[in-house]
Amino acid sequence: MTEQIPLPDLSTDKDFDGEFFAPIYTTTVTVSGGIARHGRASGRARSADGVLDLNLRMPAELGGDGQGTNPEQLFAAAFAACFHGSLSLVLRQAALDPAAISVAATVAFGRDPGDGGYLLHVDLVVKWPDVDPEIAAPLLKKADSLCPYTKMVGQGTPTTITLTS
Q1: CA-to-CA distance for 78 and 84, rounded, in angstroms?
Q2: At what angle do helices 71-93 and 133-146 cross, to 10 degrees?
Q3: CA distances in angstroms from 76 to 33, 99, 103, 114, listed in the order given
């Protein structure tokens, strides 16, 4: 018999009353090696705990061999998973079953018309069979306000860049 892992307490209330960012989980992924074109790198991506360990490759559309994953695929997977998690939390709190929902994230890599550099565009599509759009709309809005990836895209994310030797 498989024992079910208990879910953590669900909280979307303002149960944190601080002035500063309070990290709950931190991870590090290092990318090394490979070649770089179009402002993008191939090589190897490895998490500090070794759970993520994969080869990065340029997609065929950008002149690569397409024989590995690329940053846009990883970002799309992370974004879809994060929004799916936020929406699932909101649904469980509303006494709704999130089992039927799915989230697809499409990430497009292209030129930034503002500076000639590069830019990402993200489209999220939530598949939720047989839901009334009037019921779904406020729940999607709440999930959007909770999801750190949508916050990052909309508000930006504090970033530090440090050079070491």
Answers
A1: 10
A2: 120
A3: 23, 20, 10, 23
Judged by average pLDDT, the poorest of 22-26, 44-48, 123-127 is 22-26
Q: What is the pLDDT of residues 6-26, one digit of tens each?
A: 655 556 555 556 777 777 788
pLDDT of 21 reads: 78
Q: Give the tokens for residue 6.
A: 């208990």
* CA–CA–CA angle 102, 48, 83 (5° rounding): 20
Cα 141 from Cα 133, distance rounded (Å)? 12
Close Cβ partners of 23 (under 8 Å, ≥ 6 residues apart): none
Domains, the chain, ordered by start: 27-69 (2.20.25), 70-157 (3.30.300.20)
Q: Are 27 and 47 in contact (CB under 8 A)?
A: yes
- pTM equals 0.84
